[in-house]
Amino acid sequence: MSKCLQGQYHMLGDAAYPITPFLMTPYKNNGHLINEERLYNTELSKRRIIIEDAFGVLKRRFRRLREKILI
Description:
By secondary structure, the protein is mainly alpha-helical. It has one helix at about 35-60, and strands at about 10, 25.
């Protein structure tokens, strides 16, 4: 499994996005994932939860972030 090269930065996304060189997404679970792919999905999910929680804290702290951005 070489989705992420050590020492490089990547964005984390959910399954709605395609995997790209800079975006890490989970493997699609079609019932045939190997243990390494299941572990990858679990670890990716743990990190995404931490990031989503951080955005929640920021939105509670800075109410302006809850508003729609008008361009």
